[in-house]
Amino acid sequence: MRIGIDACALSTWRAGTTRAVENVVRELVRVDEHNEYFLYSNHDFALPVENGRWQKRIDSRFGFLPGAIWIQTRGKKMILGDRVNAFWATAHILPLGLPPAIRKVLTVHDVVWVRYPETMATYTRMVHRLLAGRSVGEAETIIAASESTKRDLVALLNVPAHKVKTIYHGVSSLFRPHDVVVARKYIAAKYGVSETYICAVGTVEPRKNLSTLVEAVGILRKRAYFPFQLVIAGGKGWKNSGVHRSVARAGLSEDDVKSLGFVPEEDLPLLYSGASVFVFPSIYEGFGLPLVEAMACGVPIVASDVSSIPEVVLDAGLLVPPHEPEAFAEAILRAMNDCNLRSSLITKGIERARLFRWDKAAREVLQVFNQLVSPRKI
Fold it and tell me: Mean pLDDT in runs of 10 for the chain (378 residues)?
């Protein structure tokens, strides 16, 4: 087969979607010894593709176009020219109007544009409203990041259940427990934070609900001695975000809540390992990759009890309603102070994380291609 892949996500900053696509592609290079692949993007990306059956198809002359628009125009022209048998749209949007001879696979990480459109940037919301719904209709197979996302597709977008296959994300072998003291000293020295901290990882955006976590820390500071700094690792927009404004409202200072901005992947295992608790208060997730990474690093989890989060965590974390800062405060204290509970959460988390593997995800994606396309000579 000749398989095309939308690789635009690989040239953007490394949020969860980018890392998911990158890791599946890396494993496909390793596990698939037969098919040809074409990676389409309007920007080059760092992923090394040394196998002769893999080709980057970069057209940076149109780099000014957003990826979702480029793939509809110049990208689509390149796809047709390469005469692929199948095309995999890796993030919600297909190049619309591909001929029936090209079998269409679409990954949907979440349906936030339907459930919580108010939490999205205006441009992103408009693009999804214009293109994502139509893409869901044109796709022959949809890969959902969780059973929760599959249920949303069926209930909210009327997608037939048989058309959707759930393929979970994995976790890189980088994510493993590190010596806590070493990890804390490294993070403190490099990022200027306290050696005693709780952490959250995720893009600073409304859906991540970080203001509730700030409120919870404010409650803990007012109630009793709580010498732990809240450390937030995530994307841009901190100074203009609601979570930044909520720090003052909670009676906290910028020493109490530290934003690290983007943290490179090689530092994340140390950030997780050094944390006393990992907190994930999101109001909606399609999967929640930081949850699995944190569990793999042996840190207790406190998270929201909504969308895909209970499915991913099961009993390896404390789950509470996302809009109840008092509940988060109580759960954080329990995860810190109850030694038996803490030990149990750590053990269960490490065991749970072992079930999420990128090689398994890649093989399941390959199985989707094989089921859709009967190999033919080109």
Answer: 92 75 92 93 80 87 81 94 96 93 96 91 88 94 97 96 97 96 97 96 88 94 89 69 80 89 93 98 96 98 98 97 97 96 98 97 96 63
**137 and 279 within one domain:** no
Are 38 and 4 within 8 A, CB to CB? yes
Model pTM above 0.85: yes
- Residue whose C-alpha is closest to residue 8's, from 31, 30, 44, 41: 41
Q: Could you give the 3-state DSSP secondary structure of residue 231?
A: strand
| Domain containing residue 315 | 180-353
| CATH number of the domain residue 27 falls in | 3.40.50.2000
Are residues 318 and 335 in contact, defined by beta-carbon separation less than 8 angstroms? Answer: yes
Nearest by Cα to 314 from 351, 273, 358, 360? 351
- Give dist(CA 201, CA 208) in Å, integer: 9
Assigned domain for 175 exists: no
CB-CB contact of 365 with 21 (8 Å): no
Domain-embedded: residue 148? yes
**Alpha-carbon span 369 to 141, nearest angstrom:** 9
Q: 61 and 86 share a domain? A: yes
- For the chain, the domain total comes to 2
Which run of H or of E encompasses 331?
Answer: helix 325-337
Q: 136 and 42, same structural domain?
A: yes
164-166 and 197-201 strand pairing = unpaired
Classify residue 247: in a domain, yes or no. Answer: yes
